[in-house]
Amino acid sequence: MHPVVTEQQLPEFAPGGLLANRHVQSLANSSAPRKLLIHHRAREFRHGGEQWILDGGGGVRLLGFYNRHKERHTRGLVILFHGWEGSSDSNYILSTGNQLFNAGYDVFRLNFRDHGPSHHLNREIFHSNRLDEVVNAVADICGKIETRPVYLAGFSLGGNFALRTGLRAPALGIPLARIIAVCPVIVPVHVLDSLESGPAIYHRYFVKKWQTSLRIKQRYFPGQYEFSEWFRISGLKDQTQFLVERYTDYESVQAYFDGYSLHGDRLVNLEVPTTIIASRDDPVIPYSDFEGLVQPPSIKLVTTQNGGHCSFMKDWRFNSWIDQFMEAEVEAAQIGAGRGN
Q: Does 4 score more than 50 pLDDT?
């Protein structure tokens, strides 16, 4: 039996005042003021992304945006995965992507099915076990883009997808040099428990975004979807059960949750060097889920006392520590591989 994941404490992230509060941290991350600032700072990066339609296999198409350095040598390619009901334009994706691009890396921001402006591309709705199409899209990216090394980073549910993609990557010849997972979902049902039992603002936030997404899907495929009954259901778990029973092949919602759970030894065969970042005060992902992970030698778990959910905000200019950390991780991976600068 492998030991439980070893932690690396980073005392240099120590926000003060209100930013030490986990709810302030988490809400600031997706706030409108931060959106205004990030869209201003990352304006050239955001508008400079080339729109790509990727092959997810079996006729599935996924949308992404590729920022590349055309006039100078690139230091590598970083593929970014957003969280549930996020997108390639989420604050944290644009902030991290802009940081990495300015540091000399090419960046690919992938949208999962039905995230961002992609609801029209596929008839079936998104769910969290649609891993094959994401892995195939990453393989498509790596097949079309020659830039090396390739790094994969994801936030929240995107972190979960990144870790599961890493399990598949070696067998498929996907050349991942490192995976970075920020506050990844480990035990899905625990996340829904946190959202349903915690402050109502989190529950309302995700339900509102989910409602918007399903309305868009129904508008594109009116003959296939009628979600009026779903809109009368309260509670994320009951809403999930409704969709699982009607629009997936899973025998039960428990089987669906188990399909993308990473608890226990699910990551024991992960070969790609991996860094997982977890905040002890995360109001969405219970820290106890990380304590139950069983470690392969490839995984390093980095923990902070503060940070909220995927936030790690350093100051009231909405600068995130995670951006610098991400850059440091890919730089360290290059040095470790003997590439340096």
A: no
